[in-house]
Amino acid sequence: MCGIVAYVGHRDAAPLVLKGLKRLEYRGYDSAGIALLDVEEPGSSGLKVYKKKGKVVDLEHELAGKALQAKIGIGHTRWATHGAPNDVNAHPHESHDRKLAIIHNGIIENYATIKQNLIRKGHVFRSETDSEVLIQFIEDIRKETGSSLEEAVRQALLEVVGAYAIVIISEEDPTQLIAARKGSPLVIGVGENEYFFASDATPIIEYTKDVIYLNDLEIAVVRAGELKVINLDNTQTTPYIQKVEMELEAIEKGGFEHFMLKEIFEQPRSIADSMRGRVRADDGHLQLGGLRDYLDQLAASKRIVIVGCGTSWHAGLVAEYIFEELARIPVEVEYASEFRYRNPIIAERDIVIAISQSGETADTLAAIELAKSKGATIFGVCNVVGSSIARATHAGAYTHAGPEIGVASTKAFTAQVTVLTLMAIAAAQKKGTISETLFRQLLAELERIPALVDKVLQNAEKVKEIAYIFTYAKNFIYLGRGLNFPVALEGALKLKEISYIHAEGYPAAEMKHGPIALIDEDMPVVVIATKDSSYEKVVSNIQEVKARKGRVIAVVTEGDTQIREMVDFVIEIPNVHDILMPLVSVIPLQLLSYYIAVMRGRNVDQPRNLAKSVTVE
Fold first, then answer.
1. H-helix or E-strand containing 505?
2. Between the CA of residue 222 and those of 72, 167, 371, what are the distances in Å?
3. Res. 282: pLDDT tops 70
4. DSSP H stretches of helix in 11-169
5. Omega before 85 cis (within 30°)?
6. Amino acid 44: pLDDT
7. How far is CA 214 from the centre of its chain?
8. Which pLDDT tens digit goes with each residue over 38-84?
9. DSSP E strand boundaries for 46-88
10. Which of left, alpha, beta for 310 (phi over 0: left; psi -120 to 50: alpha)?
11. N or C: which end of the chain has fewer CB within 10 A?
12. Helices and strands in the chain: count of H runs, count of E runs
């Protein structure tokens, strides 16, 4: 969850690290800190650590007026796991003798046992964190064995259980940074006689496009301008340097008030980018290069299991309907966080599709490993090139949605649904379960989706007006049927994530089985009531809500007059094939949640208690 930034080279480290922390603040914003080593002042006073509860701007205020000259430094923005968010628990953490400092993303599961052993040896701990335990453990090994810092790090990592991405700085060598990863992402930027370390590429791309994605159980050592990578077995490896495609403007707000609003309005482009090179409706072309060698296996599969968390789980629910409707393959959608803690029945001919925006979601990675151990074929659907899920799966497809900085996913959802829809259509065509006519119709309508989404976005002011009326609501219910049921779940999730209003999504038909007891004049009900095969049933559900004085906001197909006459507020969206409706119907729900949250004074890009990438369990 936390954000890691480090630098060694010829630039001033402090401003570079602080700027990087701001770019990574979507990963955690409970506290922030920085450690700097002045090359001109090696020795007892050279390593300086500053940290502060709150956001990176609070750390900047703390640093005002301080001497920050350094060509090497590490920084961290925290999402708390062990220990409350405060100054003491903020990273970096120092060794007992204060000559080493560490930044850490992840969880050391056996930290308590290690800590007790160290206490018996006389170590004193200043914080409640597992991270401080790790750096003191490394210090202890080094002193007891007389080994180098590099070897002490390796020995310590052989003993710890859990997940980590770490960077360590030592007062004794102002040219050295040591980094390692297991289960948490870490990227190394390679410049001219300089190196950058970060949790993802966003702090790096301003300075270099050459990056190394460190593999699990690898240690990277930079010393005197040279990079060496070894694994925990102490075998040196040859790192693969690749070009990162991300552009700097993609991680700037571009004139929008918030990243979330920018990303909502980017969806016409991000959906188009998810299809670029894959779909040509004019000549009936559909090709997913990442699945080329596995398409026969997908079409022949007897069962598909989809795993994901949060918004990705909702995208999986949409895919369940589409795969079963078009390809006639049974689909089960599982919370990745639950999948690994039971004994799921997985057969060798099963296909498991893992969905994750970041490609680093810890629960989803664990589900992948479990399914692989049972012989299943694993497909990945993720956004970040070189991410852990992309490397852990047999095949898959990138969404190509571009960076998503807002913590509440928006364009990630529509990009995931787009790619999963393409996979389902491709499997159905290969299997022969859809006609050529329907195949071409779906491709043609897919090509129209970006323009239709743009049309919905042009009506954002109407949604904003409705949002103002419901700013002070305490509860919401979202209803949908069929493919719009997962959209109702996603709409409710967006609202509670960023506005802190309690909201629940239900299949519309389930309202009579409990939730109808909540309906009164103070309960706003959002109903996705587009003209599809369930239309008349949804009309009946709306009538039931209105009979109990509920206030209804209906998302309807353009030109619908029947529902307009019975509800309080209407948001119109263009008509599209039922299979593709979630790509359009979710847009007004994203806007509604955004405007309500802004009007309530919420920080929509960094909602409380949340972080973008859940890299710990």
1. strand 502-507
2. 11, 11, 36
3. yes
4. 13-23, 56-63, 111-120, 130-145, 149-159
5. no
6. 42
7. 19
8. 866 544 458 999 998 988 888 989 888 888 889 999 999 987 776 77
9. 47-53, 72-78
10. left
11. C
12. 18, 27
The CATH label, of 3.90.550.10, 1.10.10.10, 3.40.50.10490, 2.10.109.10, for the domain at 259-600 is 3.40.50.10490
**Is it true that 3-246 and 259-600 share their CATH fold?**
no
**Tokens representing residue 368 in the block:** 């992948």
- What whole-number distance in Å separates Cα of residue 4 and Cα of residue 351? 34
Residue 5 CB: number of other CB atoms within 10 A? 29
**Domain 3-246 CATH (choose: 3.40.50.1980, 3.60.20.10, 3.40.710.10, 3.40.50.720):** 3.60.20.10
Residue 166 contacts residue 102 (beta carbons within 8 Å)? yes
User: 287-330: per-residue pLDDT in tens?
Assistant: 998 898 999 999 999 999 999 989 999 999 999 999 999 999 99
| Spatial separation of the C-alpha atoms in residues 88 and 103, rounded to whole Å | 14
Residue 137 identity (one-letter amino acid): F
Which helix (DSSP H) or strand (DSSP E) does residue 499 occupy? helix 484-499
Question: And the tokens for 11?
Answer: 């630039």
**How many angstroms separate the CA atoms of 52 and 354, rounded?**
37
Contact yes or no for 71/128 (Cβ under 8 A): no
**271: its two tokens:** 């959906």
Domain ranges of the chain: 3-246, 259-600
| Residues labelled catalytic | 2, 612
Q: Which tens digit of pLDDT belongs to each residue from 463-487?
A: 999 999 999 899 999 999 999 999 9
Q: What is the dihedral of CA 204, 208, 214, 218, to 10 degrees?
A: -100
CA distances from residue 373 to 16, 297, 318 in whole angstroms, order as listed = 42, 18, 27
Output the furthest CA–CA distance in the chain (Å, rounded). Answer: 81
Residue ranges in 517-581 assigned as alpha helix (H): 535-547
